[in-house]
Amino acid sequence: MKTDIILCGVGGQGILSIATIIGEAAMKENLYIKQAEVHGMSQRGGDVQSNLRISSDPISSDLIAKGGADVIISMEPMEALRYLPFLKKEGWIITSSTPFVNIPNYPDIEVIRRDLSLLPHVIMIDIEQQARDAGVPRSANVILLGAAQQALGIEYDKLEEAIRRVFGRKGEAIVEANIKALAIGREASR
Prior knowledge:
Blueprint: E1 2-10, H1 15-28, E2 32-39, E3 47-55, E4 69-74, H2 77-82, E5 87-96, H3 109-117, E6 122-125, H4 127-133, H5 140-152, H6 156-167, H7 172-188
Parallel strand pairs: 1-4, 4-5, 5-6
Antiparallel strand pairs: 1-3, 2-3
Helix pairs in contact: 1-6, 4-5, 5-7, 6-7
């Protein structure tokens, strides 16, 4: 088993929380994991990106080469396109459909959506709206994780357990909100 994942978005959207949950789940399955993070200036809406490599065999490098990512998980549709050169030909993009317009020359969202729809394996979900509708507005990132679960090759229950461990210190209400969000994402990707 080997899965190379690029997680991307804008500072403050929860990309690093997703990476932590995936990493925790992978470690509990006794898989090797390497992670490299690039933090933008989150207070200014900067780019945040993480390379996450998971394997049943030892991993040499924490960076993913161009054309090497199996999955891109993006909290923002333009960021998904930014990292497209890193995606394998048959790789998966799981992205929010809602733009985070943080620059004055943000491209036309319909052009971005059209470009993404031309790719062979794309799941695009309005995670922000789904999170609001479900009463878990701070868990939109975990909805995206739920949508990515099958592409990641990590069992659903392992992600649930990882959420419990990662968020447990924040209280049962936070844990349950994130478990609910994970289920919403899994259902939305079907």
